[in-house]
Amino acid sequence: MTTYAFHPHTLPTVPVEGSEAVFPVRRILCVGRNYAAHRREMGGDERDPPFFFAKPADAVTTGAEIPYPPATSDLHHEIELVVALKAGGANLSPERAIACVYGYAVGVDLTRRDLQGAAKAKGQPWEAGKAFDASAPISAIRVMDAPAPEAAVTLSVNGTERQRGQIGDMIWNVGEIIAKASALWTLAAGDLIFTGTPEGVAAIVRGDRVVGEVEGVGRLEFTVV
Ligand code: MN
Fold first, then answer.
1. Exposed e or buried b for every residue in 154-167, given b needs 16+ CB within 10 A?
2. CATH superfamily of domain region 21-224
3. What's the gap in Å between 108 CA and the centre of ligand 1?
4. What pLDDT, in 10s, does the model give residues 51-91?
5. What is the distance in A from the centroid of ligand 1 to the CA of 17?
6. Whole-model pTM above 0.90?
7. What's the CA-to-centroid distance between 152 and ligand 1, angstroms?
8. What b/e string do you get for 90-128 counting C-beta neighbours within 10 Å, with b at 16 or more?
9. CA of 129 relative to ligand 1 center, distance in Å
């Protein structure tokens, strides 16, 4: 039996809709620029394919209140479909990749846009901009087949719609995302993948009420405090 130097931290988990069981999070991968209209608003080149970055597993939060993070004055919302894996592997075909899916959730990829912009300008890594505490608010996971291509992906702040897209707008679909990720990392049960955001990303401030929804998947609500 392992003797730990100190008590190990609690495993991050996400509730599973209609179940007592919770989903134990192993890793969080995120896809950047997976919607053409968002790639344009971020100044991306039309020929640049989407890419991956990561957040720590303990960035997930299901809290009704999300603390405004330190060291930023430009916190942005990015509404995203999240894929939860029950299996994994390396070099998966898109068909085998889809069979690894446990369910789907609604997530917001919170971003300290000012820090991300500074990192981009200097060619530095993105962790300070993307991988901070509580940067991955998420809904309960719904065990289901993939949402329909026409399913709406929306986010509103204080009742005003800011983002709207649909699942079929994604440049890489869910099977392709998992397959491409598995060519870079060995995936496993417990992995979450944030699949990218449609256009309309913008700043939120303390007191804002954020409601994100992926049609057929769920709804995520939180207040920034
Ligand atoms: Mn994102």
1. bbbbeeeebbbbbb
2. Fumarylacetoacetase-like, C-terminal domain (3.90.850.10)
3. 8
4. 999 999 999 999 999 999 999 999 999 999 999 999 999 99
5. 24
6. yes
7. 17
8. eebebeebbebbbbbbbbbbbbbbbbbeebeeeeeebeb
9. 11
